[in-house]
Specification:
four-stranded parallel beta sheet
């Protein structure tokens, strides 16, 4: 199973949409993959969880990562400084799980991300997932 790591705090909606695209591409290529951002963000939108509970989320994330065969780090702006991404990378290293770095440019051009940040929510989702 492939675990997708991406910065979340401060760019929640963008991280969610980019994670959905990465997850979709991995699954369509025949991989088994997981994005805790997709799960957690959807739950947050439903009012089920509070994103500020870092301890809960990082514990949950690392438990899932321990059962994975690879970690993909999506190099969205800020990934090097993300506490969550750093924790996931450290855990992967300690377990000998290979880390793959993924530049989002290959599937989400910057002009789309820029447009996404300044446009209507429904328009953004249609644009990014096409």
């Amino acid at each position: 199973m492939i675990y997708i790591s991406i910065p979340y705090t401060g760019c929640e909606n963008l991280s969610f949409c980019v994670s959905c695209v990465v997850l979709d591409k991995l699954i369509r290529a025949g991989n088994v993959a997981i994005s805790t951002v997709v799960c957690g963000h959807a739950m947050r939108l439903q009012g089920r969880v509070d994103k500020s509970d870092y301890g809960l989320w990082i514990g949950y994330d690392l438990k899932i990562l321990r059962d994975c065969d690879a970690l993909i780090v999506v190099k969205l702006d800020g990934w090097e400084n993300s506490a969550g991404v750093k924790a996931e990378m450290n855990e992967a290293r300690s377990l000998g799980i290979p880390i793959i770095y993924l530049d989002p440019d290959w599937f989400v051009p910057y002009y789309v991300m820029d447009k996404w940040l300044s446009s209507d929510k429904n328009e953004r989702l249609a644009e990014i997932t096409e």
